[in-house]
Amino acid sequence: MSATLYQQIQQFYDASSGLWEQIWGEHMHHGYYGVDGSQKKDRRQAQIDLIEELLNWAGVQTAENILDVGCGIGGSSLYLAGKFNARATGITLSPVQAARATERAQDAGLSARSHFQVADAQAMPFADNSFDLVWSLESGEHMPDKTKFMQECYRVLKPGGTLIMVTWCHRPNDEIPLTTDEQKHLQDIYRVYCLPYVISLPEYERIARQLPLKNIRTADWSQAVAPFWNVVIDSAFTPQAIFGLLQAGWSTIQGALSLGLMRRGYQRGLIRFGLLCGNK
Q1: pLDDT tens, 225-242?
Q2: Which candidate in 49, 84, 111, 214 could, as Cys together with 63 as Cys, close a disulfide (CB 3.0–4.6 Å)?
C-alpha cells in the first residue's frame, strides 16, 4: 500500500472513529433492513442483524480463530468472539482504532482471547493457514491492489476455512461501461472516504476463482442496506453530532457533508453492496 494512501486512511479513521462511536456506536458498517430494505428497526440492531445475516448466508455456524480485516474499533471482532467463544484478531491502519478496540475488549471481558494491532491487509504479519474464519466487512474498498488483498486473505485462511468478504462495489460494467457522470460520482466518493477505487462484484468473483477459492457464492444486498444512509444522515446533524464534527476536524466534517453521495449512489444503482464467500 502506498505510503500516502496508508497515511490518508490512518488519519481519516484516527480523526473520525471517536465521533462515530459517540454518535453511532461500535459497529462501523451498514445495517440490514430486510431483503427489500423495508424493515424499520434501531440502527444498532440493524448492524447486528447484518452480521447475523452474513453468517447465515455463508453457512458459518462455528469458528475458533477469527481474523477481522479492517476491524475498526472491534465491533465485529468482539461480537464474533463472544458468539462463537472464539479467539479474534483484528487489524486496522489506525492506531487510535486499535487502542480503542483493545479497551473495548477489556471492558467486555474478552481481552484474553482478543488482539488488535496496526497492520497492512496487503502484507499481513500472520503465518499461512492461521484462521478458520477470515472476515472482511467493508474494508476491501480501501485496498489499492484488490488481487493482493484477496491473496493475503486466502493465504492466512486455514484449509477448509471460510472467507466472508463484504465490500462497496460499483455496478457491473461488462456490458454497459460506466458513464462519465458515474465516474465523476465515484471519484467524489473516493476523495471523501480515502478510497483508491472500487470494482464490480463480478470482478471480485473472477479474482476469487483464481486463488482458487472453493464453493464461491456472491450476492448483491444493496437494497437491504441502502436505508442505512438515511438513518446516518438524519442523525448527523443533531447538536451533539455537529459539536463533535467541529472537534473532529475537516476530514470528518467533509465526510459528514458528503453522506448524500452514498445515498445517491445507491438510489441510482451505481453503488452496490457486494458479498462474496468461499472455502479454502
Answers
A1: 999 988 877 776 666 655
A2: 84
